[in-house]
UniProtKB/TrEMBL annotation:
This is Acetyltransferase (GNAT) domain-containing protein. It comes from Pseudoalteromonas denitrificans DSM 6059. GO terms for molecular function: acyltransferase activity, transferring groups other than amino-acyl groups. It comes from the Bacteria. Keywords: Transferase. Pfam families: Acetyltransf_10. The keyword Transferase applies. SUPFAM superfamilies: Acyl-CoA N-acyltransferases (Nat). Residues 1-114 form the N-acetyltransferase domain. Gene3D superfamilies: 3.40.630.30.
Amino acid sequence: MQSMSVESIQRYIDTNYQYLVCEDQSKIMAVIAIRDNSHLFHLFVSDTYQGKGLAKRLWLLAANNSITQGNTGYFTVNSALNAQKIYLKLGFTPVSEVRIRKGIKDIPMEIYLEPD
């Protein structure tokens, strides 16, 4: 999980990544990152706040921001196996079977959102 180190995230923020953070009295509730205005790179919700719709609200906010910045509505994500269920709930569909890259299993998924 080197991509989650403070140094790695700082590099992401300094490049082509859009991060949104949801806080409650300085406690991080959820985080989302969109890379290159089209790839859902990180989506995490703290255990305490799971099941309250935060992932969906944060995803829609980030997706709408990307569409406002020129995205056509097409997004991708490389879902961890244990996260596939939430991405399916968000409307993503798998584009291939499970793959292994650098020892990590994921499922490539995509979604097309109609701009408002």
